[in-house]
Write a structure and sequence with these properties.
alpha/beta, transferase, Glyco_trans_2-like, glycosyltransferase activity, five-stranded mixed sheet, 302 residues, membrane
Length: 302
């Protein structure tokens, strides 16, 4: 029986050492029918050594940094597989990862996305992701299941979850053809949550599958306390809520954010004397609040 082609898509942005480690881990996978696509988002360092070391890799060189959504979209546009595995370059995978994810995807026509268990690379017995609650429409926040718990087998049952983790998303091509590519207005953070909402609105399910796993080197490409993260987390939380929460509920959303979340977060930066983060957070809030044309039409693929 012919096994369907799986297109593995990852983004490289000034992280060649991580991308090389990622590609090395994929040399150990047991699934036989794979294409690997690396999208370089205009890195300062040349990505050509990827092809020197791994000549079968499909390398796309973006002329500019198109962010998480744009980079993945460029990969999906050229992918030939029946399934897309969007995965961060700062990860390493278990050898059976593709068989396990494909097996779950084939169990039902309703499966729109599958996410494996995600463990921390530096502490592989600590869970980063084992499912996720829905985003609260008032606060704009959700809760990760199993987050920072020691992995003792307590999250070993596959189940429908509300949101995937952007570090590893296995998606049938038919779903992407139906709903379109990811929204590129986010650039960084919240785009995978927005995409999950669109997948669910189309009648599909998001699944957590713990039979296999990836190891994640958490935020190495951005930094755990970077100004970039502060800005885009602030901006994109608002964009997500504006796109996915509707009136009259959005009145309560705006009230909570203006009266509680915004002053609380700004005060935290004041007490820590983190004035650069204060300015980035407030600018992100304003940009997310006043950005026009937030209902961009999704781009479809053939």
């Amino acid at each position: 029986m012919n096994k369907p082609l799986i297109s593995v898509i990852t983004i490289n942005y000034n992280g060649l050492i991580h991308t090389m480690g990622f590609l090395a881990s994929f040399q150990k996978i047991t699934y036989p029918n794979v294409e690997i696509i690396v999208v370089d988002n205009a890195s300062k360092e040349s990505p050509d050594s990827i092809l020197d070391e791994y000549p079968d890799t499909i390398l796309i060189k973006n002329p500019e940094n198109e962010g998480f959504a744009g980079g993945n979209n460029r990969g999906m546009e050229v992918a030939k597989g029946e399934y897309f595995f969007l995965i961060n370059n700062d990860t390493e995978v278990a050898p059976d990862i593709l068989e396990v994810l494909l097996e779950r995807a084939l169990k039902s026509e309703k499966v729109g996305l599958v996410c494996p268990k995600i463990l921390y690379h530096e502490e592989p017995d600590i869970i980063q992701y084992a499912g996720f609650s829905a985003i609260n429409p008032i606060t704009g926040r959700g809760k990760g299941k199993g987050y920072l718990e020691k992995d003792e087998g307590q999250h070993q049952v596959a189940e429908i979850t509300q949101l995937a983790h952007g570090a590893a998303m296995f998606i049938p091509k038919k779903v992407v053809k139906e709903i379109g590519l990811m929204a590129e207005l986010y650039f960084l953070y919240y785009e995978e949550m927005d995409y999950c909402e669109r997948i669910k609105q189309a009648g599909y399910e998001i699944w957590y599958e713990p039979k296999s796993y990836i190891l994640h080197k958490e935020s190495m490409s951005v930094g755990k306390n970077s100004l970039l993260k502060t800005y885009y987390m602030s901006r994109n939380r608002w964009l997500y809520l504006r796109r996915n929460v509707h009136y009259p509920l959005f009145i309560f959303t705006a009230g909570y954010y203006l009266l509680v979340a915004l002053p609380k977060n700004l005060l935290v930066y004041v007490f820590r004397s983190e004035w650069d983060h204060f300015k980035k957070y407030f600018k992100g809030f304003l940009d997310g609040l006043f950005l026009k044309d937030i209902k961009e039409n999704p781009t479809l693929i053939n």
